[in-house]
Amino acid sequence: MVRFTTKKIDSLTLGERMKKIRNERRLSLSEISKSTRIQTKYLEYLEEGEYMKLPADVYVRGFLRSYAILMGLNECVLIKQYEREKGIHKNIKNISECETSNAPISFSSLVITPKMIIIGAVVMLVASSFVYLYAQVNNFVSAPRLVIIKPADGLITDGNSTHLTGMAEKDAMVFVNDQKVLVSENGEFSEDINLRPGQNVISVKARSKFDKEATQTVTVNANFQNQATDSTESGLEQADKVQDGSADPFLVEVYVKNNPTWLSIEVDGEVKYSGTLDLKSKQNFNVQNSIEVTSNKAADTFVKINGKDLGQLSEESIGTVKASYDASGKVVKGQE
Predict the structure, then answer these.
(1) What span, in angstroms and rounded, lies between the C-alpha atoms of 286 and 248?
(2) Can you spell out the DSSP letters for 223-241?
(3) Do β-strands 213-222 and 155-157 pair in parallel, antiparallel, or remain unpaired?
(4) What pLDDT, in 10s, does the model give residues 315-325?
């Protein structure tokens, strides 16, 4: 005899689950929209299961990640349930279309003439032209899509850095604090951001191929403090700290003039930046012991320590130059 086992099935759809959690926490759609930066209409489509009205899947996954972070849920579970239910919706739609296409068509009263074919072709051509022009004009006048997935606005952290992730339109250029970052083929981007103690404002800008821009900012509060010498330490211990290079941290600013310049920057032996620094951009670092700057255009590379401008990395304009600094200024310089 064949025995069957019963299996409990979660009868709630994704939309029903989201609505139930929202009601349990007494949150409105507008409150969730403000916290996650997801438009209210997209939250309504998700709760009502109207998946065909949502944008591309890559944006929906981003919506669900932001929603999961806000609600403390497992983002993978939400994304998998969305993909499963959307697949069911597509299958039902395909079956309906197939049944419609199989219905018998009566041609008894329909007479197609060459004139009708020509008129139909002209109408389709004109309609297609209008659709194409509308799409181009809409792209030209509209700001590009920009979504910051994390960090959440108002985040409080004890670390000295945070990881920024987000999504933009496929062909858009993205700048984080005026520094250009790489964007993947599907529009995703990420960047590690160094923080200063206190409030940090991160500005993200997306620029479309039509030079239309969209800007969003998030605020991150960093609670870490610069390490200071303990006033209760003996004079000998303080002298040892200065001698072994573990004095108070100092702030270093690196910027370029005249030309975009490739840089590699190591802070206390760890690579913190590697890439091409654009004009009017800069990199700031909290340094404990030393910082090493490598540049292929040393004459265009400038360094400040605690606000004091030390000038060019080197006057040499040919070859790669490497220079190290401590809190007092330049220590070592070499040409590769």
Answers:
(1) 10
(2) --------TTS-HHHHHHH
(3) parallel
(4) 876 778 888 98
Distances (CA, A) of 332 to 41, 119, 192, 253, 323: 59, 80, 28, 18, 6
Tokens of 217: 């900012």
311's CB contacts (< 8 A; 6+ apart) are 302, 303
Indicate if the alpha-carbon torsion angle 34, 35, 36, 37 is positive or negative: positive
Distance, CA of 159 to CA of 161 (rounded, Å): 6
Short-list 50, 55, 66, CA closest to 14: 50
pTM score > 0.85 for this model? Answer: no
Query: Strands 213-222, 308-312: parallel, antiparallel or unpaired by DSSP?
Result: unpaired
Question: Amino acid identity of 255?
Answer: Y
Q: Sheet of 213-222: strands edge to edge?
A: 155-157, 213-222, 198-207, 173-176, 179-181
Q: CA–CA separation, 245 vs 8, rounded Å?
A: 63
Q: Please identify every stretch of the chain with a pLDDT value under 50, giving residue numbers as ranges.
A: 1, 9, 105-108, 228-239, 241-243, 245
* Rounded Cα distance, 70 and 15, in Å: 16
